[in-house]
Design brief:
The protein is mainly beta. The chain has no helices and 31 strands.
Length: 334
């Protein structure tokens, strides 16, 4: 149940709850694909600490709602916080037990995965009430909305689950292999980052046929489609990789140091969040090059003990900082 908060600052302690993992990068740096220029040559800005809002311990996932609010998932404190547009602190906190990780806002609801709780929870975006709790198989991680459905990646069970948001029932289950993490809905297909084997999966939302790519990079995680290209944040490779949505083969590689975790497309550009700092990196997809970097904080990389996430709401970009128990925000770099 949601708790309306008085206007006070939240103070919480960081608790690391890692999943573990070993870097693998067989052929990322020797690719014949187009590679960008050195990002050190791009414009870079350093702030002492970018503006932020304090939230519960260990924020990982973040999503933006239609009303401009952002919802932040704090995995170490088993909470989800709502930050209204223009607010300097959360106005609502929802208890979500079992290590919540990711969230997606769709319509009048926010859907949240509970990794150890093996559940997907539906939260009413207006009241903060948990209206539905769906049982999942082991390790629900990524969640996205698209093609009239909510999609959940069961990382440890090796399945992609399709849910009807109206009936709140599971309508399909697809075998995708153990170790997949995040999913994103593109123009014509759903894409899943198969983190464990360095591939990307394309899922046809009508037939549920799964197509597996060749190996694309070490540690694929966040993804965003832009103009027929899927851009993939490759954490262990320190790269953002362009993948042709038709062939699922790499077409460009952009070096991004500091363990890039998340990527979103905004107004024809790519916004990437790297763990060290964290650091916001702007990538020009046409030139496949970094054009700007903004250091948001002073935290070290997570190395897969946890993850970070990124969202755009109106004219601001929001970025979680797991170790600092905060979410940074700043105007979208132009």
């Amino acid at each position: 149940m949601g708790r309306l908060l008085p206007l006070v600052t939240l103070a919480v302690a960081t608790l690391l709850a890692g999943c573990g993992g070993e870097p693998t990068d067989d052929d990322d740096r020797g690719s014949s694909a187009t590679t960008s220029t050195d990002p050190a040559a791009s414009s870079s800005e350093i702030s002492d600490v970018a503006p932020y809002v304090e939230v519960g311990a260990g924020p990982v996932g973040i999503t933006s709602a239609a009303d401009g609010a952002v919802w932040v998932v704090s995995s170490a404190s088993d909470q989800v916080s709502r930050i209204p547009r223009g607010a300097s602190e959360p106005d609502l906190v929802v208890d979500v037990p079992g290590t919540p990780l990711r969230a997606v806002a769709a319509g009048d609801a926010v859907w949240v995965t509970s990794f150890r709780g093996e559940q997907l929870l539906r939260i009413d975006a207006a009241t903060g009430e948990v209206t539905d709790t769906l049982e999942t198989a082991a390790g629900p991680e990524g969640v996205t909305a698209g093609f009239g459905s909510i999609w959940v990646v069961e990382q440890d069970a090796g399945r992609l689950v399709r849910i009807d948001p109206e009936t709140r029932k599971v309508v399909d289950r697809v075998d995708i292999g153990v170790g997949a993490r995040l999913a994103t809905a593109g123009t014509d297909a759903l894409y899943v980052a198969a983190f464990a084997d360095d591939r990307v999966l394309r899922v046809d939302p009508r037939t549920l046929e799964v197509t597996r790519s060749p190996k694309v990079c070490g540690g694929p995680q966040g993804m965003a489609e832009l103009d027929g290209t899927l851009w993939v944040a490759c954490t262990f490779a320190d790269q953002v990789v362009a993948v042709d949505t038709a062939t699922l083969r790499r077409t460009a590689v952009v070096p991004v140091e500091g363990l890039p975790d998340s990527v979103v497309a905004d107004d024809g550009r790519l916004l990437v969040l790297a763990e060290e700092g964290p650091r916001l990196v702007v990538v020009d997809p046409a030139g496949a090059e970094v054009t700007r970097e903004v250091v948001l904080g002073e935290e070290t990389a997570l190395y897969d003990s946890a993850n970070l996430d990124l969202a755009v709401s109106a004219d601001e970009v929001w970025a979680t900082s797991f170790k600092a128990d905060r979410v940074h925000h700043l105007p979208v770099p132009r």
